[in-house]
């Protein structure tokens, strides 16, 4: 909301030396966020000049210019730029005459742009300034020649400061108005809030209109203009229109110029000048917060009826677009034909034109939900719909219609006739019970009854003492005050946010992280400390992606579908974190970040086949009963927490004496081992397969005998589809399973002091047998004396039969109470070899 300071000053007392910055600071105190300051982009000297004479001169380019002599200061006085009273000025416009008074920007002036003015040689003359158009001064969009002040109804003295005359020296503050405070989309509302902040005297413009017209004159008429509301399809049981006020003004001059002060104020408020009747309508909307519309009375086909649209009905709105209407759209009709999309935009068939003389002024109050739906449905967001969506004071409609009529008389030469209507079916705001002590308990600051009563009275509420508390009736312009909580917020706002103490909550003693929280933090910190970057991605994907990553082998997986997805193509909850990491990597590489080691922790959604979820959701503001709560939890699909990582680009960059080393599956496995170290668990690895991973470079990750994830390289086709290099390493594992295992108490093992005996063992097995299985058999057979066993080499080639491979293990043996002999270590090893032979047909490599 943009608020011109001079306009604000009409309805609330401002200090003579007030600055825009101070006004913004005062409004911040009552909850409005500052946005910007407008105006001040024009500086003088800019004065009123009189055209004394001009000589048309045709140029070689076919253009005709006028060499003008213009008086810019009274006879015998020095001009504001220090020059002579008469300036020679070159002008290309042809819409002025000798004797016209115009706006002259003298050398030294600065126009919006910025566009500095200086004496310059052009078309064979030195032009000592410029005669300005409305566009050049920021007063309009068109460029139909220079401003002739007589056309604006002005006849000032030569040399008069044009900045003051046209209101160009003014400034405006812009504030952010939250959706619940629609009343502040008006000078009336902001002036009231400024009064709350500073204690300055507030003068309600609505009261001033009533005072000038009288309450009876505003709402009652000698001759009623027929208006009816026929809403057969209310939304949420609420009728679309509850107030409809009209006034009739006859004999206006629709071509009369809009006064400069009004043009200036509208410009500062962010609205361009169009024509006098339209400008008056916009002016009143900004002033009172009540959207209104003026119809050409002679173009109306009959009585006005407010109704819902019929299926397939059409309307041509003021923007000249033909719109097909929905049965929920609320219309204003005359003679059965739509003349306006209620609360959004008027129709072109009753638009005011230069030939209009008789005007029907309409101001109504419409249901916010109905207007919001129509504006979104037709993608037609107007200044009117913005206000109706947030709630407009129903009592101000008749006042606004009267104010428009008043200005049409004053500025367009019309006459208000005793014709019109006032339809009124709105319900007065309901009283709210405010218990004693509630405000204090909610806000955390002691408020006296006097503070509560005065604060609520100040914002317009009717406050009545009721027992130990209050009964509060909100004003009609505050539809956001609906319960005791919103009333408490108002008390805190008016008394002052700055009085509320900032107190940090004290952590309960004896509590810390749970085991799961501690493990998750250790794991994330470990990965971050070893060069990985944590990211966060959206949990929504398409069905095909979830099927690819959600299962190692199954072609389809059960999925949770969103009931109201933001993107219909991404309407399923994720079954894996890897698609999000792939998208993040692709996005970063497109921006030049090519070497990435990413990881993410988060929930995945794994519903059970054939089970419906979310069917027992209940509404209400209280905690459900235990049995209902149990049903609610049963209606939630399993959501385990996963951790995934993705590696693309170079792990080691190219440098002097060092070739670049690309990320591969070994980096994924190394990250898994870092997770195991951080969590304090043992994760074993064996060869596996997953339909999203490379068939020969995929490992299963195990805790005990349970598979908890996969690591390796993604399928090249998957990587290329995401615009990534063919080699992309990744891992994913169930972090909940890791935290569960980490929660099991660990028993410290005694440090062994006896010497170790080491031996190597090479076994030949079929290449299809996982090395981890062979290693496990050797370790199991070797028994307690075997301390560690590590796979150190895999060989296929000369000396090894086709279809088989040699696995070399480094074995370390140690006893607790003695130094092992080579014979003891060999005997233990041979038992392991025998078990591997019996299970997998392993033979010792010769």
TrEMBL record:
InterPro entries: aa-tRNA-synth_II/BPL/LPL, B3/B4_tRNA-bd, DNA-bd_dom_put_sf, Fdx_antiC-bd, Fdx_antiC-bd_sf, NA-bd_OB-fold, Phe-tRNA-ligase_IIc_bsu, Phe-tRNA-ligase_IIc_bsu_bact. GO terms for molecular function: ATP binding; magnesium ion binding; phenylalanine-tRNA ligase activity; tRNA binding. The keyword Lyase does not apply. Residues 427-502 form the B5 domain. Residues 752-845 form the FDX-ACB domain. It catalyses: tRNA(Phe) + L-phenylalanine + ATP = L-phenylalanyl-tRNA(Phe) + AMP + diphosphate + H(+). Residues 40-163 form the TRNA-binding domain. Its cofactor is Mg(2+). One of its GO terms (biological process) is phenylalanyl-tRNA aminoacylation. Tetramer of two alpha and two beta subunits. This is Phenylalanine--tRNA ligase beta subunit. The lineage of its organism: Bacteria, Bacillati, Actinomycetota, Actinomycetes, Micrococcales.
